[in-house]
Amino acid sequence: MAELSTYALRLALYLALMLLFGRTLFVRPALPRAVGLALPLIALALVIIDAVNRLSGVLGVAPLDLDHETAHWFLTGTPVGEAGLLRILAVLAMLPLLTFATPPRGLRRMALLALSATALASLSWNGHAAAGDGLGGTLRLLAGIAHLLAAGAWVGAIAAILQLALRPQGLRLRERTHALWQAAHGFALPGTIIVATLAMTGTYTYVDLGGSAQTLTGTAHGRWLLLKLALVAGMLGLAALHRWRLVPALATSIRGGWQPRPLRALRHSLACESALVLLVLACVAVLGTLDPLA
User: What is the pLDDT of residues 22-75, one digit of tens each?
Assistant: First the structure.
């Protein structure tokens, strides 16, 4: 049960910080104000709980038995603690910038992007990406950061497009459907770049850690990685379906007289892709706790 709760916390933390970054990157459509404020608060709570759990795990004591001096040592004297402190401060700094009634634009949006990217990138110190020294360790860390940011961008894009697809069409049916088509069609090039970044950084990190074809099938880490790759392949298949079939069908429906079927098909496909995202992040939550070579 304890392991399950640890994995659930890691899953929730990754999802919250990826959404925080990804929905700031893909700012349209704007999130409802309540959701926009709730997301960083949830992320902040998860970040603090994660830091407390990590410290209690390192010391082997209950969270309630931790004292201020020990917490100060952890947050300022260890790489993982320093990353956790940076994460907390970055999310805290986002809160006043999200209290405005208007959507983030200009310098405010750039500041939110920088802060959310910092919070997400700091998760690299929670896994294998920070396990290295010298130039090789730096390159591995940079690859881990790029991998996290690319994943956050993908999660944010899926969430934004799904939000467009699920909102009531009403009297502005054609206009809102056209906005959905624009968002889905416009994601083709960014999506290709994101997938290429994920593939290159993921492969580099695995090989750099000593992974091979044998460890893919001969270790628990490898088998979980294979499951993750299978789920990602499913997401790529759905992305191809969107690009080459569902999105063009939606465009045809807009131009040639409204048909509800293309919109329903895209909604269902996006919902499936969102479910696969959660399963991929569940695999990531487990992978970060396993030795790649054992």
Answer: 999 998 888 888 888 899 999 999 999 998 888 887 777 787 778 888 888 888
Based on the fold, state whether residues 199 and 287 are members of the same structural domain: yes
Q: What is the pLDDT of residues 187-238, one digit of tens each?
A: 989 999 999 999 999 988 888 877 777 888 888 988 999 999 999 999 999 9
Three-point CA angle 247, 251, 256, nearest 5°: 145
CB-CB neighbours of 92 under 10 Å = 14
Looking at the structure, tell me whether residues 68 and 209 fall in a common domain.
Answer: no
The model's pLDDT over 96-107, given as tens digits with 9 standing for 90+, comes to: 998 887 888 899
Counted domains in the chain: 2
The distance of Cα 28 from the centroid of its chain, to the nearest Å, equals 17
Q: Rounded to the nearest 10 degrees, what angle do helices 173-186 and 188-208 cross at?
A: 40
Assigned domain for 15 exists: no
Q: What pLDDT was estimated at residue 171?
A: 58
Contacts of residue 152, defined as CB under 8 A and 6 or more positions apart, other chains included, come to 17, 18, 19, 21, 22, 25, 117, 120
Is 18 within the bounds of a domain? no
